[in-house]
Protein 1
Amino acid sequence: MVVDKGKRCKVAERGEESDRVDGELVPYIEKLQEIQDELEKVNEEASDKVLEVEQKYNEIRRPVYMRRSDIIKSIPDFWLTAFLSHPVLGDLLNKEEQKIFRHLISLDVEDFKDLKSGYSITFNFSPNPYFEDTCLRKTYSFSDEGTTNITGTTIKWKEGMNCVNGEARENNGSKRPFGEESFFSWFSETHPKRMPEMFSDEIAEIIKEDLWPNPLKYFNHEAGDEFEGDEDDDEKGTEFDDEDDEDGDSDDEEEDEGDEEDDD
């Protein structure tokens, strides 16, 4: 293929013009970069200030949480009821594990003093026929390198009462269905190797960010009404969609009948 000399000249001219324009923009781009660097510095300072405020109010909230825990201990099956009323956590407890939760006297979520470094979730049980432990804890530690280290209590199950492998249910005449995971296996889901920062533990996040701040709304079944309302809206939307589909079908049928009459 032979390229027209005129076209070659135009392409060369455009290239030179582009280089010239880019060269003229360099000082502006450098100034923009300086401003972006300045904004990044301000954002970092803002994040540090937010953490300082959050840490201050965490210390203020702590004794309030302790007073709340003391009152909850006087309410039978408070945490069991709150768990079962939660739209996600409620699906994690089978009947045998619900019996274990009747021995749960307190739940505690505590951030480390340095908020960025992690938190722990602690389940405190009264003496029970299932395991020797009275405290089950899971801890999440975040490093400056952006990794997460997870540790959990190794549960000391009493003989024949291990719910993780289904022993307790077998003793009661029913075996755990294959593939059904025990809530208590969550404590053993630890990662000795440091995990990437993007690693997510949904159960921990739900307990920390949703259940722990206000368990009373789940104990009172207040949150369930909100979810039912959403479902009702979805159902209404489906009904309207169905009606629209039916109207559309009838319109199509009328058009088809009209076409047939024209053909006749």
Protein 2
Amino acid sequence: MLEFIVKRTFILRGESYPPEIIKVSQLMEELIKWHNQEQDLHPIEKVAKFHSKFVHIHPFTDGNSRASRLMMNLELIKSGKNLLLLKIDTKQEQNNNMSWIKNIKEVFQS
């Protein structure tokens, strides 16, 4: 089972605040249940809604948007759609993204 944030996370952009820490595990369980049961939405609409809900829950201290984009691409591949391209501006961002890809693969393989 994944472990989620244990301290308050502050988002510096926008006016949205993540939910209280105590609610994160329950919200993630609800999101995963919704994702697994939702069959009526077009795959692109489904991944867009998943992305929006996931980044609002903000379950990790860092990397929530990267993780969400990777999960969106995984779902698009599974449904036979094209990938969303991730813009990488710097070598540091490329290294961070590669690290996230490795971690996400490990999660799905365990």
